[in-house]
Design brief:
This protein is 37% helix and 19% strand. With 618 residues, it is α+β, with helices and mostly antiparallel strands. The protein has four domains: 210 residues, 2-Layer Sandwich (Heat Shock Protein 90), CATH 3.30.565.10; 136 residues, Ribosomal Protein S5, domain 2; 82 residues, Rossmann fold; 130 residues, Four Helix Bundle (Hemerythrin (Met), subunit A) (Up-down Bundle), CATH 1.20.120. The radius of gyration is 33 Å and the shape is elongated. Bound molecules: adenosine-5'-diphosphate (ADP). Adenosine-5'-diphosphate binds next to helix 2 and helix 3.
């Protein structure tokens, strides 16, 4: 049962909503015309919902009323009104839908945008689920009258000045659907003229599936663009269509038009956006592909047509193979959906392969925007894993900053005798190159892949081998590097094992082992991970997620060609219990911890360092 409405009951907007309205009224200046697009798009959504409901539930108000959108313009009085015969709203829905912000991140995002650009771009507003409020750019007061399609339902009126409050009242509206009426501010009077409004509709709303009338004249031709032949669709049409279904204001990076016939029959028009939405990992899943059955809209958030790692793709799929009154539950478990999904996936991968081969610039643009999501396909799509791996790109120690290399190219540059593909992870290139474990590789000109995206660590461990070459982290102790340089300069075996013993005694349980390093050149020591241990970067991620996670013990490698280690070896021969020797060993160990970001408290470290400085400056 609906709550009763007291006549003219006043409600206050929630604080967040007030801030949003304030932002819109005072900071949204560009593209005022988009209010038309937003209202038409909401009307079209409401009509789609109605059409879908009608398929399964005949008991609705005015089941035979035409599905359409009527815009009435009163030029003399500057009044704009838009009426749809869609699903309508009851009074609870009115409050829920027109009194709150759907997505909690929206307000913060818009605030940030305003801070950066000083104003908000009206063109972008539709993406954030707050399109309705764009009318407050052009008017001071709005009346929404609505009657739910529910045969039992009553009609309500929602009135607001877009400031602090709104009023809900009963209404005498008899027809199903929603009518929104408002008087235009003087400076926006042009939107009460047929010519202007028709132009806006032509620009933004050409692909609405329902007839749109402006003062009783039908202004759109309903064309299912994806039913046209490839050669008959123009780039402008495609771009407009993309903007229409995605609410993006930019043109897409690329598109794919499919007409599959045979055992499986479907048509599809898919688009790759130019820029990843700010909510890449959250809202993205919601509106990806629109599903049609024989030109009739079924649902706009069809999650089952693309694997998660391709959810950034927008578009339309229309199939004759599904029954018209298909329910969500049926679509979810239908083998037809799985087959369509498999075809779409391989066609998209083929498109990316084509870009990588023939238009690298475009491919890298795509990669920059979507690779954090795209890469996760390696862990989830075993059928296509190899194709995805081929499309991976990385910075390496030999590429310039921001230039990316494929694994294939890396392998083609491998030196004679190099059997492994080496990688190292870190926050960014600047930090990675300081990793002492890289010294050997730099000195011997062996290329190392730099993993700078945290997602890489989750995916790289699933690759194991590429072209029969194992992938190995340079932070691991079992790395096979044969040291050629400096060996003449090295300590003898006896002396080495003596100093290693002392290191072990002093560091006790703090390390898993102490070993002679084959890879260090300029640093006296470094911490590495045991052969079965977790990559250090990965450990950091685990620790971020679980504060109690302690991680594995490290192995300390010492560089027996380094002056400091040689000096310590001398002290060790004289007296292995020397206090200064012990202190220096702890200092070296903590220094390596510090480099890795694992030193819990720098207090003792700095105290010891000051002692050393004092000694050196005497
Ligand atoms: P969005 O459309 O992106 O969800 P809006 O701010 O434009 O965000 O609209 C908020 C909500 O109000 C919609 O999701 C819908 O539930 C409801 N709504 C808006 N216009 C209509 C309409 N003409 N008929 C039915 N419901 C509507």
């Amino acid at each position: 049962m609906e709550n009763e409405v007291k006549s003219g009951q006043e409600f206050e907007f929630k604080a967040e909503m007030k801030q949003l309205l304030n932002l819109i009224v005072h900071s949204l200046y560009t593209h005022p015309e988009i209010f038309v697009r937003e209202l038409v798009s909401n009307a079209s959504d409401a009509l789609n919902k109605l059409r879908f409901k009608r398929l399964t539930n005949p008991d609705i108000l005015q089941p035979d009323a035409e599905l359409g959108i009527k815009i009435k313009l009163d030029k003399e009085n500057g009044i704009f009104s838009i009426e749809d015969s869609g699903i309508g709203m009851n009074n609870e829905e009115l409050t829920a839908n027109l009194g709150t912000i759907a997505s909690s991140g929206t307000l913060q995002f818009l605030k940030n945008m305003k801070e950066q650009q000083k104003s908000l771009d009206g063109n972008m507003i539709g993406q954030f689920g707050v399109g309705f409020y764009s009318i407050f750019m052009v008017t001071d007061e709005v009346t929404v009258e609505t009657r739910s399609a529910d045969a039992e339902g009553k009609a309500y009126k929602w009135i607001s000045k877009g400031e602090e409050k709104y009023i809900i009242d009963e209404s005498d509206k008899e027809t199903r659907g929603t009518t929104i009426t408002f008087k235009l501010k003087d400076e926006y009077k042009e939107y009460a003229e047929d010519y202007t409004v028709k132009n806006v509709l032509n620009k933004y709303s050409n692909f609405v599936d329902f007839p749109i009338y402006v003062n009783d004249e039908k202004v759109n031709n309903i064309t299912a663009l994806w039913h046209k032949k490839k050669d008959d669709t123009t780039t402008e049409e495609l771009n407009e269509f993309y903007k229409f279904i995605s609410a993006d204001y930019q043109e897409p990076l690329g598109h794919l038009q499919l007409n599959i016939e045979g055992v499986l029959n479907f048509k599809a028009l898919l688009f790759i956006p130019k820029v990843a939405p700010p909510y890449l990992f959250r809202d993205l899943q919601d509106k990806s592909l629109h599903l049609y059955s024989n030109k009739v809209f079924i649902q706009d958030d069809c999650k089952d047509l693309l694997p998660d790692y391709l959810k950034f793709v927008k578009g339309v799929v229309d199939t004759e193979d599904l029954p018209l009154n298909v329910s969500r539950e049926v679509t979810q478990s239908s083998p037809i959906m799985t087959k369509i999904k498999n075809t779409l996936t391989s066609k998209l991968l083929a498109l990316f392969e084509d870009w990588a081969e023939n238009d690298n610039e475009k491919f890298l643009e795509f990669y920059k925007q979507f690779s954090p999501v795209f890469k996760t396909g390696i862990n989830s799509d075993f059928t296509n894993k190899d194709k995805i791996v081929n499309l991976l790109r990385f910075e390496t120690s030999l590429t310039e900053k921001e230039k990316l290399s494929s694994l294939k190219d890396y392998v083609s540059r491998m030196k004679d005798g190099q059997n492994d593909i080496f990688y190292v992870a870190g926050d960014n290139r600047e930090n990675i190159v300081k990793n002492p474990n890289l010294e050997y590789f730099f000195n011997n000109n062996i290329e190392v892949i730099f993993l700078t995206d945290p997602v890489d660590l989750f995916t790289i461990t699933y690759i194991f081998n590429f072209e029969n070459k194992p992938l190995k982290s340079i932070d691991k102790a079992d790395i096979d590097v044969s040291k050629t340089d400096n060996s003449a300069n090295d300590l003898s075996e006896d002396i080495t094992s003596g100093i290693i013993e002392t290191f072990k005694k002093v560091l006790e349980d703090n390390v898993q082992d102490v070993i002679k390093s084959k890879r260090l050149v300029d640093s006296p020591c470094t911490l590495v991970v045991g052969k079965d241990g977790m990559d250090p970067q990965m450990e950091k991620i685990m620790q971020m997620m679980d504060k109690g996670y302690s991680g594995s013990k490290r192995i300390l490698e010492i560089n027996t060609s380094h002056e400091i280690i040689k000096n310590l070896a001398k002290l060790n021969i004289a007296n292995p219990d020397d206090e200064f020797l012990k202190k220096t060993i702890i200092q070296l160990y903590e220094g390596s911890m510090l480099i890795e970001g694992y030193l819990k408290s720098p207090i003792d470290y700095v105290k010891r360092m000051n002692e050393f400085i004092l000694k050196a400056t005497r």
